[in-house]
Write a structure and sequence with these properties.
Main location: cytoplasm
Structural class: alpha+beta
Strand order of the largest sheet: 3-2-1-4-5
CATH superfamily of the largest domain: 5' to 3' exonuclease, C-terminal subdomain
CATH topology of the largest domain: DNA polymerase, domain 1
Organism: Allobacillus salarius
InterPro entries: DNA_helicase_Holl-junc_RuvA_I, Hlx-hairpin-Hlx_DNA-bd_motif, NA-bd_OB-fold, RuvA, RuvA_2-like, RuvA_C, RuvA_C_sf
Order of helices and strands: EEEEEHHHHHHHH
Helix content: 40-55%
Protein name: Holliday junction branch migration complex subunit RuvA
Number of helices: 8
Family: Belongs to the RuvA family.
Shape: elongated
Strand content: 15-25%
Radius of gyration: 20 Å
Number of domains: 3
Distance between the termini: 53 Å
């Protein structure tokens, strides 16, 4: 297996990159190859996973190591193949996906192509508790206890966000305070709404 490929980024196509190293051009499939656009013609490091089946050998590529790790977990889920797993990673940050799994947010998961309610439920069953390492940003020193506290308040936060939308606040405004709301240890939807209003009118 190839852990990563480092070399000159020679070509970007709609579905794959071509990275040349030691005189060999590696065709590496990505959900969004154009995220590497700024490195065209330069040396690039692409984390890779070699998917092998009887009739198929493909090299999938990722910009971040955590994306590759999530890909490996996703393809172990019944109903999720490498193409679907790559598409999921290309459309959502790893942290957001992990949060959806831990909060059992089927609505978020069914937004991905080819993911229905049955597959979303299967992902939750198979991955819950296995993706908590990605729930905090890099360099964040939150403890596991704090992470669980955030999970405990999340149903109130979700309901409060819907209430704030109903009051006319935009998604951009709500997004700017969402992290602060989730960090609060509030015990009801009303309390979260009140706190949200305080933050929004500042």
């Amino acid at each position: 297996m190839f852990a990563y490929v480092r070399g000159k980024l020679e070509e970007i196509e709609d579905e794959f990159l071509v990275v040349e190293t030691a005189g060999i051009g590696y065709e590496i499939y990505c959900a969004n190859p154009y995220q590497f656009q700024e490195s065209l013609g330069q040396e690039v490091k692409v984390y890779t996973y070699q998917y092998v089946r009887e009739d198929l050998h493909m090299l999938y590529g990722f910009k971040k190591e955590e994306e590759k790790s999530l890909f490996k977990k996703l393809i172990q889920v019944s109903g999720i193949g490498p193409k679907s797993a790559s598409a999921i990673i290309g459309q959502a940050p790893v942290r957001d996906f992990a949060q959806a799994i831990e909060q059992e947010d089927e609505k978020f998961l069914t937004k991905f192509p080819g993911v229905g309610k049955k597959t979303a439920r299967q992902m939750i069953l198979d991955l819950k508790g296995k993706v908590t390492e990605w729930l905090t940003y890099h360099g964040d020193s939150k403890t596991t206890e704090t992470i669980h506290m955030i999970h405990a308040t999340s149903p109130y936060v979700d309901e409060a966000i819907e209430a704030l939308r109903a009051l006319g606040y935009s998604n951009r405004e709500i997004k700017s305070i969402e992290g602060k709301l989730k960090a609060e240890n509030l015990e009801s939807t009303d309390d979260v709404v009140k706190k949200g209003l305080q933050l929004l009118i500042r």
